[in-house]
Amino acid sequence: MSGRPAMSVQRDSREGTGTPAPLRPVRILIATIADLPEGGGHTSRLKTLAGCLVRQGHAVRIWSKHIMGQFPPEMLAVRGQVEGADYEIIEGTTTRTWGVRSGWMKVRTTARLAARLWRERRHVDVLWLNELSFHDMLPLMVLARLAGIPTVLSYEDEHVALCAGATLAWQQRIFTGLDDRLADRLLVRRADAVVVICTYLQEKFAALGARNLTLVPTIVNLDQWHCPPRPPEGRLRFFYAGSLYGTYVLKEILVAMGGLRAEGFAFEFQVFGDVQQGLLMPELLRLRQEFGLQDCVHFSESVPLDELRREIDQADVLLCVRADNQRSRSGLSTKLSECLASGRATVTSRVGDVPRYLTDGVNALIVPSTSVADIQNTLRQCLKDRARLPVIGAAGREVARRHFSYEVNGLVLNDLLGRVVAGRSAAPRA
């Protein structure tokens, strides 16, 4: 790897560069770990990133080392297509191992990925390493450098081992933490570009000497998520779909709803997620029972994206209230941009870059804190002033169009690819 001095060039999707696309389509290989094709969270970001690049005329392939394991295996597939990009799970299965036994799986899949990269090096113009660790990236970056292929690293939030602390097993805190720190200190400045999702990561990687540092926030398909107007009839329907592992403050939401029920308000709350294995489920079921919410709070297993979209059509208010912790402050929720794009009123929390894009009462409802009292007050506003919810929802969709759309972020990504490819065009290919 090169020891060239690191230069930090920071770009922002809000600038609207207007730079024309590279002269020819770029063949991009994204290496990652994802639950394809139906996964959420990081997988949602991966899919919209790939879709945005495809819409700019580039040829995109996705190689996932193995699955993340956050989505039911029956909803995953070893190979297929998402957003116009072909994908393949290198491990060849929609299941995975955990704990100590996963070590061999990680080594094996990295070796397979590296071997395939070298065989197909003449068909790759840019190697894009998405949310990978040091032991994943080091061999791939070495091979890419030998083959004259530029590398782009992309990140969505702080490494879990660096912000989860005592909630992780000691093996994870030591080995995963060391792995992540090595990636930050040794690999970031050697990449040809680094793409981040928020200002927290932009500042972090600027200090680490990242070159061509580019801020690309969440990306959303506006057409896919748009919902038709919903008549203000019947009980107000709150909606949540996603993680049941503590990223979002669902326990506090249920307690707040218990208080609202005691005040005499009528509503419904539909939750979709990993009901069978979600770590929060026992506590959520207990709270539903304690506050007598069995007739209005409903839990359902995760469903395919198309079906989920139809469920959102029947909702009035979408809940996207993230816990206020370092991991939330270091990222930007893809779920939030999807909620905004729907045109439904969205309730969210004031964490990370949320205030950069949203104003409380104008284009979203932002809880001042994630306390039960503040959540209850915000949900009460929704119930007492239902008429303004469509207005807030329409303004939220406009935010998604201006900041998170394929069109806006496509300009920024094309600008980045043009600089990355131009920087390596004179180098001979192995």
Structure write-up:
This protein has 430 residues and is of the alpha/beta class. It has 2 domains: 11-217 and 406-424, Glycogen Phosphorylase B (Rossmann fold, 3-Layer(aba) Sandwich), CATH 3.40.50; 222-403, Glycogen Phosphorylase B (Rossmann fold). The protein is 41% helix and 16% strand. The protein is built from 16 helices and 15 strands. The strands form 2 sheets. A 9-stranded mixed β-sheet has the order 1-9-8-7-6-2-3-5-4, sandwiched between helices. Strands 12-11-10-13-14-15 form a 6-stranded parallel β-sheet, with helices on both faces. A hairpin with a 2-residue loop joins strand 4 and strand 5 (85-89). The protein is globular. It starts with 10 loop residues before the first strand and ends in a 6-residue tail after the last helix.
Layout: helices, strands, pairs:
Elements: E1 11-12, E2 27-32, H1 42-55, E3 59-64, E4 79-82, E5 85-89, H2 102-119, E6 126-130, H3 134-147, E7 151-155, H4 160-163, H5 170-187, E8 193-196, H6 199-207, E9 213-215, H7 222-225, E10 236-241, H8 250-262, E11 267-273, H9 281-290, E12 297-301, H10 305-313, E13 317-320, H11 326-329, H12 334-342, E14 345-349, H13 354-357, E15 365-367, H14 372-384, H15 389-403, H16 406-424
Parallel strand pairs: 1-9, 2-3, 2-6, 3-5, 6-7, 7-8, 8-9, 10-11, 10-13, 11-12, 13-14, 14-15
Antiparallel strand pairs: 4-5
